[in-house]
Amino acid sequence: MLAGLVRTIRSRLLYKMLISYSILTLVPLVVVSAAFYVRSDQLLEKKETETVQQDLNATASKIDARLHEVRKLLSELGRQEAIRSLLLMDAREGTNSDGEDHRRQEAAAAELMQSELEQARNNVGDFVDNLYLINKAGDIYATDSGKRLQYVSAFRLLPFEFPNVPQWAFFTDYRRMACDLKLYAGGAAMTSETEIGMLVLTLDPAKASQLYENYEPGTFYIANADNLIVSSSDLSDIGSLLGSGSLENRLVVRQKSQTSDFQYVRIATAGANALVKKQTLFALAVTLAAWAAVFITTYQILKRITHPIRRLYRLMRQAELAEYRLFPNIRGQDEIAMLCRGYNQLVTRTEQLIETNYKNELRVREAELKAIRMYINPHFLYNILEYISVISQSPDKAKYVPDVVRKLSGIFRYSITPGGTFVPLATELQYVESFLQIHQYRFGERLQYSIVLPAMFRQAAVPRFMLQPLVENSILHGIDRLPEGGKIEIEVQEADYHLEIVIRNPSSEEEAAPDGDSPRASEKRARRGLGSGMDNVNDRIRHHFGSDYGVKLTRDGGFVTVRATIPIQIWQEESTG
């Protein structure tokens, strides 16, 4: 189907020009629209990036302020004597204190830290989760009754550069952000021997996300330097790597925290916003409408150009079939109109020449046919009269002269009777039989004949006196030269949808010689008139029916066969050839 469509387009100038002009129109419109969209997208993306960056800076400053307050609070707790005394007491007593003393210490520490926690929540925010105090032996004093700390050892391994300066952990503890402060003996260097314990403050992950609640879920994260998410409005994202999901076609803006090793990540939709998309769709609709208008207009204009050309082509194809028609209603003075007028002049001149040549051809053919018939009639009459002279000299055959004259009269009347050039085949064979009967009076038993005419061919049209010269050749060059005589066979048949009349007769050795005889033998046969009658018949058939038809002579095994081939046509009384 596609191949047929391509062939149709390639065969029609209208379609090819229409597609070419449409492409030439559509491509610039598409390029302009695409350039507008891309440029607008770039400008809006740049503007949106700037806007997102400014917004992120403001949010980062807000969160940094809160984180700084947490670090400040933890630093103040680390300097309280009650906290440090509790840790120093644990260090001195070790495992020697009884259970009662230890419980009193836990209760005192819990009461102290709970008080500090309440104060921190009031001063900093309710996102502060719990406080944990861990002595060097690993005992935990916490505001959390469950003492939930997931990575105690990891807190001990956090690096600290300055004493009494809290450090935010780069990992989460039960999805909570945690700030750690290592405590050392007063005035001592920061070594593992002088370490007396540490303070850990955790943030509630759900309440911590309220610091950036103005953002849509999945558009803001707090991550460490390795892109590990430590805070998100979706708690299931905490602990996963940022960017493990698809961030294609997303705008990612990062801002480094000023108070920690965290980074704030803002994710926004990249590219044109809804307004630009609407404008782009509008531009696309305008482009398609403009293209459709150009397509229709181009089609109408090209149709006025190609329609006369196509019509002229059809007229020329008809002229190939000898159907000459003029191009009607020529309007305008352009090149197409000039071409159509030139075609009309050519057709008019061609018709005039055809008519003149046709009339001249008719005159020539009529003159040739008359000349042939004028030759045949006297020649035939001369031969018959000579036969009458011969048989009248024989006393036994002289009695046949009246019948011969009667048959001759009928043949002669048939040859000069006015009428059409064509006659029914049955009529032609009737007079051929009369001709053979005349010669039977002369040759007697030496001449035999047979005529086979199927009923279906009785009304076939043949040129008048077409067969008589062929039969006369069979007698003159066959029977007459054989002392024992022979039989002439005439058979009508169909061969390859043509009418074939076959005349077969025996021939003498001289006549049966190969075609490659010497020129002298050929001259001898020509002087005797061999083939003159057949040549005349062949010329007449070709005049009437064309060069595909005619007479053919073959010799085989002492017999000569003449085949006259003509088209099968039914004779009509008004037929004139």
UniProtKB/TrEMBL annotation:
Membrane topology designation: Multi-pass membrane protein
Q: Which domain of life is it from?
A: Bacteria
Task: Read off the InterPro entries from this record.
Answer: Bact_2-comp_sensor_kinase, HAMP_dom, HATPase_C_sf, Sig_transdc_His_kin_internal
What Gene Ontology molecular-function terms does this entry list? protein histidine kinase activity
| Location(s) in or outside the cell | Cell membrane
- Would the keyword Membrane turn up in this protein's UniProt record? yes
Enzyme class label: transferase
Residue ranges of the TM segments: 18-38, 281-302
Which keywords does UniProt give here?
Cell membrane, Kinase, Membrane, Phosphoprotein, Transferase, Transmembrane, Transmembrane helix
**PROSITE patterns membership:** HAMP (PS50885)
Q: Which Pfam families match?
A: His_kinase
The HAMP domain extends over 303-355
Give positions of region: Disordered: 506-537
The protein's matches in PANTHER family, at most eight in alphabetical order, are given as:
SENSOR HISTIDINE KINASE YPDA (PTHR34220:SF7)
Q: What is this protein called?
A: Sensor histidine kinase
Give the species.
Cohnella hashimotonis
Traced from the root, the source organism's taxonomic lineage reads: Bacteria, Bacillati, Bacillota, Bacilli, Bacillales
